[in-house]
Each structure stands twice: as structure tokens, then as C-alpha cells.
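Reviewer comment 2.1 asked that we show a complete input and output for one of the modelled complexes. We chose the 9MR case, as it is the one discussed in the main text.
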Amino acid sequence: MHIRTPRRATRLAVTAAAATALVLAGTLPATAANGKHPSLRDAAPADLVIGTAAAGGGHHLAQDYEGLEPGQSPFLHDQQYRRELKHEFSSLSPENQMKWEFIHPEQGRYDFAEADAIVKFARQHKQDVRGHTLLWHSQNPAWVEEGDFTAEELRAVLKDHIQTLVGRYKGQIDQWDVANEIFDEGGNLRTSENIWIRELGPGIIADAFRWAHEADPDAKLFFNDYNVEWKGPKSNAYYALIQDLLKQDVPVDGFSVQGHLSTQYGFPGDLRENLQRFDDLGLETAITELDVRMNVPEGQQPTESQLAQQADYYQQALEACLAVDDCNSFTIWGFTDRYSWVPVFFTGEGFANVMTEDYERKPAYYALRDTLLAAAGGK
Ligand code: 9MR
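Response of the prediction step:
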């Protein structure tokens, strides 16, 4: 786990545009001392980790990737991908490899191999890890969803799972998404979809945090969701719930917004303000799954203006995080379009990441890097 230096009060003293001007004027280094362009992690201020999802499991299992055997994970088997992963990022999130169906496929059987490999890789390359996720309505194995458990048994199953995972990686996982996507768009608990809440009642949410905290008192424990970038019924529901839990001394440390954005919608302009109100509760905040998809007709490439708009959204999201004191972790959901989940889930949409399928850096990549350089004051 990294000890971070206290945040400078004026971290966002210069904007990215101003940084570019400073680079041109020779005030900021466009290249690092070794003559190479700084990576995202090199460019970042000391108190912000720059993360990405480590690709494997989930949709990857059904893809036919050039150079990989069916079912092989990019994280384990694509060497160029691994080089970028260690070079560019200071935090990793297992994209699917710590989800219930992947890591606990049968009752009494855990499959830790890929999760262990990610944690080991992160240690070797001085990267943080965000654990994802412990209590969710999705990607649960059939033995859980279709099991014939009493409430007491199901509770024991969840407690065992949480404490086994959090305990196994004690001291090696910095932040855990303990509860993922528990509210619907209207701000109502997903009671019918979420087996844990449905069968065990809403009090199970607090218990999940308590059990995780028992297993690793130093890990920061988060609520994580999408469509909570702005103030609205869903983020308001988190705001109310978290205040309530904090009053009861439930060990909640953070609120994170995933950030699955699309250029067909406006940028959530109150992102910073929204993060700030959670920061004001004494919480850490984070952006955990940022990507910016776009509509591109089959067989075509994004236009320059689409790429510019995408870069602007990435930059605005980063600037919002940089402007909030305890927004300490900024993660993009994959970095190359080669392995993106987006085209698999949204027909006609894609190109959501900061590098092309061939690892070429897009305007969004440079927007992030220049914004980080500006925030770090050109270290
Ligand atoms: O990127 C993940 C993809 O590989 C899986 O197939 C998919 C299944 O639901 O989950 C994706 O990741 C999701 C994340 O775990 C939670 N927030 C939304 C992400 C995109 O769907």
C-alpha cells in the first residue's frame, strides 16, 4: 500500500491548455529526463493514482482476439498489453476476475489464479489495486442465484465470501468496491434484482462493510455505481444512505462514480460539485471506470470532432477529480479499444478508450497526460 503525500491545496493551479502553452514556452518538460515521453503515471501528481481495468473474464471469454487462444485473458497473455499496463498505470482493477462468478464459481471452490496474478503484477510494478466487487446483483454464479438457502445460510455464504477475499488480499488491496450498483435510476434499492438485499434485507449492506472492515481494517471501502456522476435521484440516494450509515459508525470510506459516458449525451457538468458533497462528508471519492463511447457507423472510424469531444470529456472528468481534495484514484475502464466491453454491449457504439486497437494514442490520451502534467506542476 502506498503512503501518499498530503494534497497540495492548489493542485489545479494551471489548466491543461495552459500546460500545453507552458510546454511550448519551455517551462514544463514535454519529455522526461530519460528522453521518453512521460507516461500517465509519471505525469500524475504524487497523491493521485491513475488506474485501468486489467482485462480478463466477462465478455473477453467469448471474443476471438487476434494472437490469443479462445478464453485466454489479455491480462495474462498479451505482452504488449502488459507492457502498457505497467508503464502507464499506477493502479489496477480486475475487470471481472474478482467477481463472484469468476472467483467463486462453485460452492466451496474459489479460483484465485487470475486475481492472484493481478495482485502480484501490481506489487511488482508498485501499483495499487481496487478490488471489484463483493455485493452486486450481477455476475453471481448459478449456485448462489438458484441455490436453495435459508436466509441464515445465505448470510453465512456472503460473510464467508467477503472475508475470504478481503482477508486473502489484506494489505494488498487499497480500495474495495464493497457494494456495487445497489440503486436503480429512481434512487430505489434494487430489491428484486439483488439477491442479497431481497433475501436478507437492506441491513445486509452495512454488514457487508463491517465484514470487509474486520478482514482488512486498512482497506478503503466504497460504494460504486454508474449514472451517479451528476446530482439526481440515484446519487442523492447514496448521499442519504451514506449519511445514515456514518451516523451508525458503519465503516464506509468512499463513494465512487464509474463514469461510463457517451458523446451522444452532454458531459455531466456538476461532476465536481457532486464529488465535493461526498468529500464534505469526510469520504474519499474516486472515478473508477471511465470510458467515453461514441456512435460510429459500421466499418467507419470516428471523426476528428468526435475524437476531440471524447478528449474533452476525459479531460473534464479528470479535472473534476483533481479539484476535489480526496479524489485519490482515477481509473479508466481499459485503455485500448481492442478489448473494450462497449461494442459487445452497445450495437453501433465503441471507440471508447484512450488508445486505438493498435495501441496508438488518441487525443484523449494526450488530454489526460497534459492535464496531469499541469496538475503536478510539471515535475
Ligand atoms: O467490463 C466488464 C465486462 O467484461 C463484463 O462482461 C461485464 C458484465 O456485466 O461487466 C463489465 O464491467 C462492468 C463493471 O463490472 C461494473 N460497472 C459496469 C461495467 C461495464 O458493464
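Residues 58-60, 95-96, 138-139, 226, 258, 289, 341 surround 9MR (CB under 6 Å). We note this here for comparison with the apo prediction described in Section 3.2.
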